[in-house]
Amino acid sequence: MGLTAADRRAGQADVYTGNVSTRTMLSVHASKTCSVAACAEIVGAKWTVLIVHDLSEGPRRFTEIEHSCAGISPRTLAERLRWLEAEEIVVRHSYAESPPRVEYELTGKGRALLPLVAEMRRFGHEWLGCGVHGD
């Protein structure tokens, strides 16, 4: 009996029996040891890449990001921005003005994701026929 995907992500071994030999395969895609898996956890989270793409043009207010990411609820956007802030991908700037102003901006770590976003854009143009909006 094989392991579940969750078991494999946890790094547990699975034994496969074939005609030639028996071998044990350890998961190489555990997010703590595999850089691709760790990155996929970040960019694979819903809305993350779209928020990073939006912030690539500079600091944005919450409502600007909300309008740009059509379909995201304010609660989900707030949660996602807090998570991106905790991951040090986004920094939140509060300004003591009346009315108060808050902007979000990419950190160096967040800007390091921009080549990945550019590749996704290229892939979308070339293979998916997307890009009619000049993204």
Write a structural description.
45% of the residues lie in helices and 16% in strands. The N and C termini lie far apart (46 Å). The protein is globular, with a radius of gyration of 20 Å. The protein has seven helices and five strands. The longest helix is centred in the C-terminal third of the chain and has 15 residues, at 114-128. It has helices at 5-9, 35-43, 48-55, 62-68, 74-86, 108-111, 114-128, and strands spanning 14-17, 22-25, 60-61, 90-95, 101-106. Strand 4 (90-95) and strand 5 (101-106) form a beta hairpin. The protein folds into two domains: 1-29, no CATH class; 31-128, Winged helix-like DNA-binding domain superfamily/Winged helix DNA-binding domain (Arc Repressor Mutant, subunit A). It is an alpha+beta fold and 135 residues long. Residues 1-9 and 11-25 have low confidence and may be disordered. The strands form two sheets. A three-stranded antiparallel sheet has the order 3-5-4.
Give the arrangement of secondary structure elements.
Elements: H1 5-9, E1 14-17, E2 22-25, H2 35-43, H3 48-55, E3 60-61, H4 62-68, H5 74-86, E4 90-95, E5 101-106, H6 108-111, H7 114-128
Antiparallel strand pairs: 1-2, 3-5, 4-5
At a glance:
Keywords: DNA-binding, Transcription, Transcription regulation. The chain is of the alpha+beta class and 135 residues long. It has 7 helices and 5 strands, in the order αββααβααββαα.
> For the largest beta sheet, what order do the strands appear in spatially?
3-5-4
The overall pLDDT, averaged over residues, is: 83
- For the record, the count of structural domains works out to 2
Q: Let me know the number of strands.
A: 5
Radius of gyration from the CA trace?
20 Å
Main sheet makeup: 3 strands, antiparallel
Helical run tally: 7
Question: What structural class should be given to the helix and strand makeup?
Answer: alpha+beta
